[in-house]
Amino acid sequence: MNKMVLVAGGAGYIGSHTTVELINAGYDVVVVDNFSNSDASSLEGIRKITGVEPKFIEADCADKEAMRKVFEAYDFQSVIHFAAYKAVGESVAEPLKYYHNNLVSFVNILELMAEYGRSNVLFSSSATVYGDAEELPVTERTERKPATSPYGNTKQMSEDILRDTVRANSAMHGIALRYFNPIGAHPSALIGELPRGVPNNLVPYITQTAAGVRECLSIFGDDYPTPDDSCLRDYIDIVDLARAHVVAINRMVEGRTKESYEVFNIGTGRPVSVFELVRGFENANNLKLNYRVAERRAGDVTAVWADTTLANEELGWCAERRLEDTLKAAWAWEKAVRGL
Ligand code: UFG
Question: Contact, 240 vs 193, CB < 8 A?
């Protein structure tokens, strides 16, 4: 059985945590990253946590000849593709940057996999494909909504590119994992999220506010039709999310897929409001956060959370970490980054 995996974007937030869990599960990992939204400190963190130095090649996945060298050098049978941009607002302002990076990278990898006879592809998709869903929780059969940003569009297009590619190539298998809202950090506080500039996402904004890097958290809207009037999301611990990748890779490596292309929701199944998350962070870490209510943010959906039955039954995976522990880990990581 080939236990080597290429992790494209393995120095990033989800990629680094997944690399740790793959190594812990006995996989031999090759990381490719161009550090466009990460740095080498995560590779050092991976080494400290696992005691293993992952093989590393600095390359841009959109550079096909650079990627060809990776395929020439290593005989991995499986690839996880994390190497994509992910800021919704930036994608609206700079669509071609997103279409180029996110799609060209993925097509390059798929072409090289077909050429070199590599079989298993795991793609990082997102709950963003469901948009403002009419029925909650969303299942994998819930219809995708037209994307409202170029970022979201690259996720939908990449899902389709993967589906069509593996259906046309009987030697290939593809799984798309639709992540809900990944948060937290490794409990060692050696790896975590390193947003550049002002964070777009809620938890990094909260931890930076608690650390005094930001003055005040803005809660975007308290006039939503939800129990406490703030938006509902499904916040999934980053280590739980990383483990989902391991079981999905196992499924392909062990030949247990039921169809050439499969999709799984990766969330907790539990909706949490913005106010609940803020209070949860305060209680878990015994501190008070400076926050105020602000206008709604354009493009936010009211509520989205996962039906996780399929991942539970087919992957044998479910989220395990308690939200309180996740929020403690998020704060421990921020403190480690700031030297607090
Ligand atoms: N929020 C605030 N203040 C902030 C940041 C966020 O109140 O400073 C609120 C948002 O309005 C939203 C919730 O916190 O209600 C979560 O916002 P995030 O930006 O953390 O996450 P999103 O749900 O908007 O987006 C995430 C991923 C996207 C993905 C999307 C899919 O970041 O990549 O989920 O649903 F597309």
Answer: no
Please state the rounded mean pLDDT for residues 120-137.
Answer: 96
The answer to whether the CB of 124 is under 6 A from ligand 1 is no
For tokens 């703030």, what's the residue? 230
Query: Of these residues, 13, 27, 85, 151, which one is catalytic?
Result: 151
Q: Is residue 207 lining ligand 1, measured as CB closer than 6 Å?
A: no
Residue with CA at minimum distance from ligand 1 atom 28: 128
Q: Model confidence over 11-22: pLDDT tens digits?
A: 999 999 999 999
The pLDDT of residue 87 is: 92
How far apart (Å, rounded) are the C-alpha atoms in residues 264 and 318? Answer: 12
CA of 206 to the centre of ligand 1 (A): 12
Ligand 1 mean position to 132 CA, how many Å?
Answer: 13
3-class DSSP state for residue 211? coil
Tell me the helix, strand and coil percentages in the chain, rounded to 5: 40, 20, 40
pLDDT, tens digit (0-9, with 9 covering 90-100), for 100-126: 999 999 999 999 999 999 999 999 999
pLDDT tens track for 43-66: 999 999 999 999 999 999 999 999
CB 105 within 8 A of CB 63: no
Tell the burial category of 83 from Cβ atoms under 10 Å away from its Cβ (0-12, 13-18, 19+).
buried
The yes-or-no answer on residue 291 being catalytic is no
Write down the pTM of the prediction.
0.98
Nearest to 20 by CA among 238, 176, 196: 238
**CB-based contact 159:129 (threshold 8 Å):** yes
